[in-house]
Amino acid sequence: MLQKFKKYAVSRRGRDSLLCFGIVLIAYIAVQAAIAGGALSSQMKGLLVPICAYVVMAISLNLTVGILGELSLGHAGFMSVGAFAGIVATTALAETIPSAPLRLAAAMLVGGLCAAVAGVLVGVPVLRLKGDYLAIVTLAFGEIIKNIVNVIYIGMDGRGLHFSLVTQNFTLEEGGKMIISGPIGVSGVKTLSTFTSGVVLILITVFFVLNLINSRAGRAIMSVRDNKIAADSIGISVTRYKLLAFVISAAFAGMAGTLYAMNFSTVTAAKFDFNTSILILVFVVLGGLGNIWGSIIAAALLTLLPELLREVGDYRMLIYAILLIGMMLFNNSKLKRRLMEQRSLKQMEKLEQAADGKEGA
Amino acid sequence: MSFLNHLISGISLGSIYAIIALGYTMVYGIAKMLNFAHGDVIMVGGYMCFCATIYLGWPAWAGIALAIAVCTVLGMAIERLAYKPLRMAPSLAVLITAIGVSYLLQNAALLIWGSSPKMFTSVVGGQPIALFGGQIMLAPVTLVTVLSCLVIMAALVLFTGHTKMGTAMRAVSEDKGAAQLMGINVNTTISMTFAIGSGLAAVAGVLLCSAYPTLMPTTGAMPGIKAFTAAVFGGIGSIPGAFVGGILLGVIEIFAKAYISTQLSDAIVFAVLIVVLLVKPDGLLGKRVSEKV
Predict the structure, then answer these.
(1) Which of A73, A78, B19, B183 shows the greatest Cβ crowding within 10 Å of its Cβ?
(2) Is B21:B246 a contact under the CB 8 Å cutoff?
(3) pLDDT at A184
(4) Which residue, among B37, B98, B76, has the nearest Cα to B224 in the 3D structure?
């Protein structure tokens, strides 16, 4: 049993999943302990759910950028779709499902589904393009989604849901209420998201994505990343697997969007703009492409960083920017390469010594 | 007549996009990187001109000269400090660094000038010219914008086509290694490209703020993205492409605002971009690069 576990933990697949689940669970226990001990400020508590949402966003974007190998600059668009679809779902289901956690779960499903549909609509044209052109088109789609959500009006009354674009051309019965009112967005929503629900969503995402990576489909997706032509020539349908990865990535972004939106009583479409997409891309790149636990740590730390830098006041975003540039420069510097070489040399020496030892015995 | 008026303001806005896109396309052509900090160099240019003319009381031409000088140096410094060490790095690392530089410039501007918008006074004075008995109003700044765009485009075409430095730039953009073997100083060439691109960004910044006179630390962000879109639209790396893309984008944006919906104008611009890229994946005037197996 122990032997089996050891073997699993040493394998790449086992190490990755143990690290992912371990980090999330340990962080969860630590935070719960800190809350119980009263060590968390209210600002920190307010950050818990957004951190969970960003972690899920980072994992899902990593699927597109790291595993599929296509740069997406419009991931916040899917978050937006999920956020607003989720809000409409919770309001519409308020009477059908009275239990808050169940309603949140249902809203996430609706949010994820809507984002997946958006993912198909965006993915079919986008994935035909390559490289920077693909990146700019995802950026364009992100902006289009933001603009469209910005002019959606949805209201609900006794007769059901009402919907209009650009201008509000419906009137609600007495007792009805507006859910989304254009650029003003959503206000007065009952917040349903909790830290626990966020962690559960992270765990589900990690479980799903890790299993996907280690499945037949996941290997096909990675083969498309590594060499499209080679993959094509051994009978892998490039378009199908590209779309599969892209849509799954969009669906999780939608769920993260629902989680994020249900944490605030007011949400506007402008929140999910280009800057948010970029923020999440930064998490993915700093965490390491294709590295799921790296994404988790990077998203959590970089969301906390501006908060931790609050002491330096106005300079915090400046320092954030300098740290960002510094990290990228260090990551690609000669200094780091030399350190890595030294480390692998030492490891090789160790292996050689171990081999010598065995021979001696 | 309102159609003509919209067309004129579209061409005017498009000329500004075109100037930014020209800088963008040159930098992209040679460094093969999405320089997200380009939009913020525009903002720095605007602030420099603002400070020179309002705080120091300099004449407009001196303000423009200062803006160009500062942005040129800034562009070269950014390239030297942030991008040059990453020349061998994966393109995503360079992209994130560019985003970092963009944050840096925006937040530095926020610290220096504050978040409240500054009212920019146009560098081109004078009364609007009335045509057709006052039915069409032509602001002098519009004329200057369109003219400078044309001059810049022509100058860039001549520069890249007929000077030693321009030829070197084309060579480096084609193949860095081969260019170096031919005795071209690659570092100087790339540095020069950034200098030219940033200088153009300064000009665009001054013209942008003259036409739309609110100046904030985030002023350059959206025009930067739009100009990048324009460059892709016309075929990135191509100078006439950036010009055509810029003008078209400006005209589409103003028409969408006037005839369809103000709120959806950006969505329409980006939708047109997507359609163009689907029909012509290399942009309107882009070069078709065949893929090697």
Answers:
(1) A78
(2) yes
(3) 80
(4) B37
Cα B72 to Cα A100, B25, B47, distances in angstroms:
57, 16, 14
* Interface check A305 vs B, CB under 8 A: no
How many residues are present in chain A? 361
Mean pLDDT of all residues in chain B? 87
Q: What is the DSSP secondary-structure string of A72-103?
A: -S-HHHHHHHHHHHHHHHHHHTTTT---HHHH
**DSSP label at A39?**
-
Each residue of B53-71: pLDDT tens digit?
888 888 888 889 999 999 9
Task: Report the C-alpha gap between B97 and B21 in whole angstroms.
Answer: 20
CATH class of B2-279: mainly alpha
Q: What are the structural domain ranges in chain A?
A: 16-314
| Token pair recorded at residue A71 | 């740069």
Residue A109 amino acid letter? L
Question: How far apart, in whole angstroms, are the C-alpha atoms of residue B262 and residue B254?
Answer: 9
Which of B79, B103, B266 would you mutate first to test chain A, the one with the most A CBs within 10 A? B103
What pLDDT digit, counting tens, does each position of A125-146 carry? 888 887 778 888 898 899 999 9
Could you give the CA distance from residue A301 to residue A158 in angstroms, rounded to a whole number? 46
- Whether the CA torsion A80, A81, A86, A87 is positive or negative: it is positive
pLDDT at A113 over 90: yes
A22 touches chain B (CB under 8 A): no
Q: What residues of A are in contact with residue B233 (Cβ under 8 Å)?
A: none
Please answer whether residues A75 and A64 qualify as being in contact, where contact means their C-beta atoms are separated by less than 8 angstroms: yes
The rounded distance, in Å, linking the Cα atoms of A291 and A313 is: 33
Given this model, what pLDDT does residue A187 score? 77
Whether the CB-CB separation of B224 and B215 falls below 8 Å is answered with no
Q: Identify whether the C-beta of residue A63 lies closer than 8 Å to the C-beta of residue A290.
A: no
A132 to B273: CB separation less than 8 angstroms, yes or no: no
Q: Is-above-0.80 flag for pTM?
A: yes
CB neighbours of residue B27 within 10 Å: 27
Task: Name the residue among A92, A39, A84, A82 with its Cα closest to residue A60.
Answer: A82
Cβ neighbours, 10 Å, residue A336: 12
Query: How confident is the model over B92-143, as pLDDT tens digits?
Result: 888 889 989 999 999 999 988 888 888 887 777 777 777 777 777 788 888 8
Is A89 an 8 Å CB contact of chain B? Answer: no
